[in-house]
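Structure request: Rrf2 family transcriptional regulator, Taklimakanibacter albus.
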Amino acid sequence: MKRDSRLSGVLHILLHMAERPEAATSEMLAKAMQTNPVVIRRIMAGLRDQGYVRSEKGHGGGWTLSCDLTKLTLRDVYAALDSPPLLAIGNRSAEPGCLVEQAVNAALSPVFHEVEAMLLARLGDVTLAQLSADFHRRLVARGLTRSKAHA
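Returned structure:
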């Protein structure tokens, strides 16, 4: 199973957006995520539908944050991405006919559900404001300013 890195990528661009006074175009954000602007627009549409970002068309347009970073959690962003699979491992089949595989599923399924619940809870405990504060601590520790960090 291929790893889904959209959450990490979206958090990355949201934090960059938080540092910008002006709107960021899909092209700019795509460059930061090393992807196509169409992919960015698709991802950002889910965030816009939840009220986390807004978009403006035309000259000077682009994407801007429209929410309080102290209230926006990693779980909120994860849900806006349509809750992609959290684990790269899982049962071989959902409803196996083999009794051995049924026993394996019976042992693994509760563990997978427990781990997912713990991860979702932890994602709900972390806000984008906390990530931004961590970024700023790292910036200061390296003796950089915001403008040099984005260069």
